[in-house]
Amino acid sequence: MNFSQETAQHLTAIIQAQRPAWTINGIMKALQALAHSHTPGQALDQALNAAKDQQAKTPAAIIFDQYRHQNRATKPGTQPACEDHEGETAHNCRCCIADEKLGQRPREARGKHHDPGDPK
Ligand SMILES: [Zn+2]
């Protein structure tokens, strides 16, 4: 299990806010099915993707693979990918931006391979 029952309850509240018609029990069951293979963030992403899809009639859809990694940053072929962070686009990689804020990556290295130990 990557997350607890308590975490699943918190996620359920968020998902139910997105799709009030979905039952708490149904959402909880789907999240529990994801708990062994997903982090809380991955489960939330996937569940929200399902919840936003009006074709998804029941919360059971949360477990469908088609809702996995449907991140707007990862549409294939539209943007170059970050060289350091899988699933992020080079120009607005969230991991690189976080590194920049921490002073561990210069702005010009966003989306490019950067070794913080490299003096250049
Ligand atoms: Zn990056």
From TrEMBL:
Q: Looking at the record's lineage, which domain of life comes first?
A: Bacteria
Q: What high-level taxonomic lineage is stated for the organism? A: Bacteria, Bacillati, Actinomycetota, Actinomycetes, Micrococcales
Report the protein name in the record: Uncharacterized protein
Give the organism the record lists: Arthrobacter russicus
Q: Where is this region: Disordered?
A: 101-120
